[in-house]
Every structure is written in structure tokens, then in C-alpha cells.
Amino acid sequence: MTIPAHGAGRDRPVLVVDFGAQYAQLIARRVREARIYSEIVPHSISAEEIAERSAGAVIFSGGPKSVHVEGSPRIDPRVYGLGIPILGICYGAQLIAAELGGEVSRTGVGEYGRTVMNVRRPSLLFGSDEGDKAAGTSEPAERPVWMSHFDSICSVPEGFAATASTAQAPVAALEHPERRIFGVQFHPEVAHTPGGQAVLERFLYHGAGLAPSWTTESFIDEATATVCAQIGDGRAVCGLSGGVDSAVAAALVHRAVGHQLTCVFVDTGLMRQDEGQQVIDAFRRSQGIELIAVDAADRFFDALVGVTDPEEKRKIIGELFIRIFEETANRVDGAAYLVQGTLYPDVIESGSDSAAKIKSHHNVGGIPEHMDLELVEPLRNLFKDEVRSVGCELGLPDEIVWRQPFPGPGLGVRVIGEVTPDKVALLAQADAIVRAEIAAAGLDREVWQAFAVLADIRTVGVMGDERTYGQLAVIRAVTSEDAMTADWARLPDQLLEKMSSRIINEVAGINRVAYDITSKPPGTIEWE
Rounded to two decimals, what is the model's pTM? Predict the structure, then answer.
């Protein structure tokens, strides 16, 4: 595929307009996989705001509503006159058709899941444009796609061409190359649509004339400049939690301001087994970053006495965490900034104009209203895989970069019910066994997260001819690309058996093990 030389960094972002779709975040990720910067914006955004942001293209997401329902989400109609390339997906395609003079109706038969689509005529999106012909990459006329709709586009607006159809959708795709407006009824962003990424890239590269110029290196350069501008000659403290997010944030800020950064590692007592010492060794010895280690386990356990509500746990842990930072910052002359590893999914899941609150995140919802330090969040617009790439580029060791995601509140939200030192000790041992066996099986790069949960249940068992009444441990392992959605991992039976046997035999107090086979949605990755 011939790729234009046009730039497409953060100065010309692709704006993904969220109409309430479960896949809006995934669309943004797919655009970034094409090495073009993207952001999610609410459908209430005005044409002036889109123009002011110098958008390189706009993508309308899908959504759960019908375009015929009163109060269904709309876009400022002046957007169509900006001359900015537009791609509509599912509801977004129907909105384009309905607002520009086509017909969208309810045929009585919807399409859900894998569907066969036929490309009916030459199409830029499906690889029959001149650039792709020259490269010999035209796609077959018949192709599988993933559908999820009840309304259908029955006729296209004037000047548009219907380029594809299915048995139930007479217009499965529409294009107006001169106006640079396109629409597809299916979901190219999901893995269930083979070749879907190619469809998005043809829109971005050929329909919008953008080039893949947003890279890890360009992000680091831009983020470094931004951090320098924000901190100036000031001093910053960064909290190291043991996870990849805070580690990469620290390394990035250290590159920007060097000795002006002091890292603070707060041992909450809720870390994974031996993780505290690993963090201290990695940053003091390997990275040469100034690090203050604070043993605050007793303070956290005291604050959590009698607390069982998950959201209250998160708030308590988050606020105490920040307060300890503030106390520590008083020992760092002139410290006025707090560096956090907040990621884009954290921001989205914690609630926005277009996303319902799923749970508060330690780096977002757990921040107290009053805080004496100004936040520095250099990773706020990145997904997890992008953070790992940045970490590799910054030279962080693999054991830090590829460490599995770990919640800010730590084992505090993996102990169901009241959190006590004894329960955390049990869980840490069980969790270490799960992670060790996953690594031994060579699955630590394939599984997004694998960990143990200590359920608030006591269960009867028999061990050594004696009756026991012990704790239930639950193994949770999921596969995912960015934690926005996740599927339970199909681990080999022998591996599950080995983990269960080791936990029961080696962790005194646990006498039963279960395996969680819930995907996200409807569940979440964490239990609390």
C-alpha cells in the first residue's frame, strides 16, 4: 500500500467521536496501531472545536441507540462542511446516511456476529483504489465481517456510492471520495473482522492522506518537552508502586528533569511477594534515580480495619498513599509536583462525558480533593502496550517493563472483605505460586494478568485425615490487548492442577482453589 508523506502526529490528531459505543476505545487503539495519534472526544464536540484542534480525520463510533429515537446522540451538522475526512462505523455510518439525505430504516431483521459481506464496486476502503491496485493488494469481493446492528441503511445520500452489501444490509458500506466521507456498517476495529485493520488504514492513509508518523520516539520527545515545560526548575516526587506504569512515568520524567526528580516507594504492605525489594534494587542500582523508601504497612492496615466495601478501600488506600507522599515531599526541598502513571483506560473507566463510571482508579478516583502537589501525568494519553514500548525505548529492564498490571490498591482489592496482615500474607504466597507457574509454562507474555484472589469464604476440607475449615483461593487469568475488554485464559488443565496442588500443599490456611472463567464484560478483571 502506498503511504502518503503527510504528517500525522499529535498536531493533526484523529478524533474518535464517542456515541456511547463499547468499542470507542478500541477504535482509538487501532488508529494508534497505524502509528497515527488518536483521541476520544464526546459527541457534543462542536465543529469549531474540531477545527481548532486541526483534526487530521474524524471517526464516528458505533452506539446502542437508533438514529430514529428522540434524544439519540448527534454530531454538530457543520462538521460535514469542514472538509475534514470522516469515517462512520455502525451507528456512525447510519448517522452519516440519515443526516446527509439517505434512508435508514428498521427492516425487521438485524445482523449480529460474523456475516458474509460482498464488495459490489470499486472501493477505496476495500483495496480497489489505484494505489492498492498498483501494489497488487486488492481484497476478494466476498469477505467475513463482524456486524452488530438492527437498523439498516437502505439508500445512500446523493453523490455517495454503496460499495458493499450483505444478505440483510443493502448498504454495508458507503463512500464519497470527493468529500472524503466514508461509512461501514460492520466493525473493522474488532479482531473478528479479518482485514479490518487494513480497512481503517486505507481510510487513514488514502482517504485522509495521513502518514504513520506517531512513534514511540516521537512520543518520548514530545512528553519530555511537556514535562520540562510543566516542572521548569522545580522539583518533583514520583510514586513507585511496583507496576510498569509508575516505573515508566518515573523513567520518562527522570529523562526530562534528571536530578530534579525524587522517587518515593511507599511499602503499603499490600505488594506482591518480594516486590518491594525488587523495586528498590531496580531504581536505586539500575537506573541511578534518587529513591526514598517508606515502610507504611502498619498505617495502611490500621486504616483498613473493619472496612469491607471495595470503593471505600480504594478511597482509603488512595488518600493515605497521597498523604504519605505529601509528608515525604516535605523532606525534599522545593518539591511541588507529584508524578503518577495514570493511563488512558484509567481516565476512561473512571468516568467521562461519554463513559459511565466502572470503578474508581487509584490514580484517578482515589485522589483526595485537597492535595498540596501538582499532578504530572506523562502517560495519561497512552494505552498499556504503548507504555511498555516507551519503557523499552527508555532502557528499563524487562522484569519491570513486562511486569503484569497491578492495581494501585494492591492486594487490598484482591482480599475480599476486611484486609488483615494474615490474609494478605496468605494471598501473597498463593499469588506468587500462580505467577511462577505461569512463567514456568512460558505463558507470561501471552496472559495479560494472572493472579490469585482470597475470597471472603471459609470452606470445609479434609487434609491428612483431619477436617479443615480454611480459605478459598480463586485463580484469575485473562487475555487482553489493553484491559478495556478481556477474555478468561484457557490455561491447560495440567497447569491449573499444578497451581491448585501447590497452593493447597504450600500455603497453610487455604484448602480449596477455584478458577474464574468470567470475561470482561460482563465482569471486570479485578474482583473488587
Answer: 0.71
